[in-house]
């Protein structure tokens, strides 16, 4: 079942700025944020607390009017709309929240049906759509259960089905897995990917969890202090050790060591002449530099084998020579703090 074409642009944010007046002080929550999300893409927007994610969500869905800039969905700037036109434009977004926020008095099926009731669908069409959605999220046998009878992951599946009920063009997920355990998080992310593949829907995930971006996103935007810090295709940013996103998305556990110099290098950069951990250590030892691996993070992200390596040098006097060798190999070494 394919509900929309994958061609073209689903969402374009252009120079979006939001300034609040807080007791006479102007606070810039969003500072000329721009990003483009093609149809059928899973786009991650990542940032720490205070980065501007919550304000961005409200501006995207028309709940907050920006100070300036545009939010263009299907070629229409929704920031210029008011009243009934704005309400209609909001239906282009289906929103999944951190907590499913289901109505306890309603069954799973009735929770999914709620937005269809509000939109004025007749009962026969509502029932058919709810049956279709329950099957889509794997909860056909839970249709009559109330939220208290469902696990956290099942409740989130109901929330996703409810967000999809009116056939939105964009599924906007606000921290959709931060309240879930690791196993349930994996199943929800797998479901979102499956929905994108089956329906062709565009998915935008707002998160502070790098693991979510690594697992599911095609592209990523990093927000910091209300502005875009970096953005790009996931396969590109994780392969470039000079980016903050590389560091955010590939964490390295650094062991406690005393009296040893540590160099951090990147694995998987397309220009590197040495591509393995053993090869890096062999390169140093071949030049008489005693080195060993202190820690490493290596994984496949967006189809590319990437990682970071922490090398310990037994003799501090070899640091400059080791760094030169690693730089020549395009491994982007730097002394670890």
TrEMBL record:
GO biological process, one term: amino acid transport
One Pfam family linked to the record: ABC_tran
InterPro entries, sorted: AAA+_ATPase, ABC_transporter-like_ATP-bd, ABC_transporter-like_CS, MetN_ABC, MetN_ABC_transporter-like, NIL_domain, P-loop_NTPase
Single Gene Ontology MF annotation: ATP hydrolysis activity
ABC transporter domain ranges (all copies): 11-250
TM region(s), chain numbering: none
Record keywords: Amino-acid transport, ATP-binding, Cell membrane, Membrane, Nucleotide-binding, Translocase, Transport
GO CC aspect terms: plasma membrane
UniProt key word Nucleotidyltransferase: no
Family recorded in the similarity comment: Belongs to the ABC transporter superfamily.
Biological role: Part of the ABC transporter FtsEX involved in cellular division. Has ATPase activity.
Assembly mode: Homodimer. Forms a membrane-associated complex with FtsX.
Protein name: Methionine ABC transporter ATP-binding protein
